[in-house]
Amino acid sequence: MGEAHPALHQDGAHQALPVAQLRVQYPALAQQVNGVALAYLDNAATTHMPAQVRRAMDEFECHDRANIHRGVHTLSQRATDDFERARTTLKQYIGATGVHELVFTSGTTESLNLVAQGLWAAGPDKAWLRRGDRIITSALEHHANLVPWQQAARMTGAELVVLQPDAQGRLHLQDLQALLTPNTRVVAITASANATGERPPYEAMLQLARQAGALTVLDAAQAVSHAVPQLSQLDCDFMAFSGHKMYGPMGIGALAGRRDALERLYPLRLGGDMVEWVTCEAAGFAGLPARLEGGTPNVAGAVGMAAAAHYITQIGLEPIDAHVHALRAQALAGLSAIDGITVLAPHATQSALVSFVARDVHPHDIGTLLDERGIAVRTGHHCAQPLHDHLGLGPTTRASFALYNTAEEVERLVAAVAYAMEVLQ
């Protein structure tokens, strides 16, 4: 994990990424699709993994593979050390302090479900959520930060209230203030909307919710690769994110947050490694983080996710952030100049993605034509159908950018969309 990267160099006020040198670590990006060079612009769904991350996982599998916490033999002890070292690395990456803990999950979706279900699964006498309580989420959310709260409301008799954006897809602090009541127990929002790129003022919103006495939940999946929220600076009880959004492996993620908040969650996976004692009639749960990590964990995934965090840190969050913002600005300018194209949330300059609709053309047709030209984008509702319904736009086409994307790839995107509008309208 200590592998050196090509030196970054100064370019005006920002450090410019040596993209051509970094791309060497991503062999999949060098392939051809339909006879032309691949332009992979679907990073909001899944980023590719650099060789450095794959090697870290291979080293674990080849040398340390064993079950953790359960053996006195050397490999088990080494695997346990690898797993706990990965936890420490990721806690440092997100700015966790001594009051925080990090629990490994399969990804953001499981993390958010662990919070929503964990707040009612203890039963009506012990659960945090009860009849008459209020849960607030927003219409910007991925379904994973909405549907679990719908279920929590049904199971407990709590009231689910959805904070609506304005006509441009923005959330406003005063609108949240109007929804907060003494009965508000949970406020769950996104750090960056995966459908539009909108970045709500989540810092102030979390602070407002905490002041109202609510538990606060942040979906950081779309921010974790370039604009990482720092727990030490936030009024955040729970933060969820995934490895595959940050140049790491699929099937691994984390739920991080305040220990006193995590301790409120009833464990959803009951069995091995999350108990202190068991009889035929009852069991006592272990302390954090073990009590929320029942079963054999994805140790290689945790190692890979930590290696990805180390990789990003080596390169530098600021230059990565500046790079993806510049690509987004370039795409916005080019797409906005095409007749019949409407870009969602053009004001979202801190985003790493751009979504658009095309007059009289279905996004699936655009996506298919782009794929014929080797350009990978995402089409549809992006697991955020209520937001699309609110904006009245239907499904969209989304291009999303990573540290390995280039200005030339954005030029290809714009040219291909312009061509699609000519032949499909």
Spatial separation of the terminal alpha carbons? 50 Å
Q: Going across the major beta sheet, what is the strand order?
A: 6-12-11-10-9-7-8
How many beta-strand elements?
19
CATH class of the largest domain: Alpha Beta
The percent of residues in helical segments reads 25-40%
CATH third-tier fold name of the largest domain? Aspartate Aminotransferase, domain 2
Largest sheet: 7 strands, mixed
Number of domains: 2
Low-confidence stretches: 6-13
Shape: globular
User: What average pLDDT do the residues reach?
Assistant: 94
The name of the CATH superfamily of the largest domain reads Type I PLP-dependent aspartate aminotransferase-like (Major domain)
Task: Count up the helices.
Answer: 13
Query: What proportion of the residues form beta strands (DSSP E)?
Result: 15-25%
Q: What Rg do the Cα atoms give? A: 22 Å
In the CATH hierarchy, the architecture of the largest domain is 3-Layer(aba) Sandwich
Overall SS class:
alpha/beta
What features would you describe in this structure?
The protein is an alpha/beta fold and 425 residues long. The protein has 2 domains: 9-49 and 316-424, Alpha-Beta Complex (Aspartate Aminotransferase, domain 1), CATH 3.90.1150; 54-313, Aspartate Aminotransferase, domain 2 (3-Layer(aba) Sandwich), CATH 3.40.640. It is 36% helix and 18% strand. It has helices spanning 19-23, 51-64, 74-93, 108-118, 147-156, 173-179, 202-211, 259-262, 299-315, 317-336, 363-372, 385-391, 407-424; strands at residues 9-11, 14-16, 32-33, 36-37, 39-40, 100-105, 134-138, 159-163, 184-190, 215-219, 238-242, 253-258, 275-278, 283-285, 341-343, 353-358, 375-376, 378-380, 396-400. It has a 7-stranded mixed beta sheet, sandwiched between helices. α11 crosses α13. The N and C termini lie far apart (50 Å).
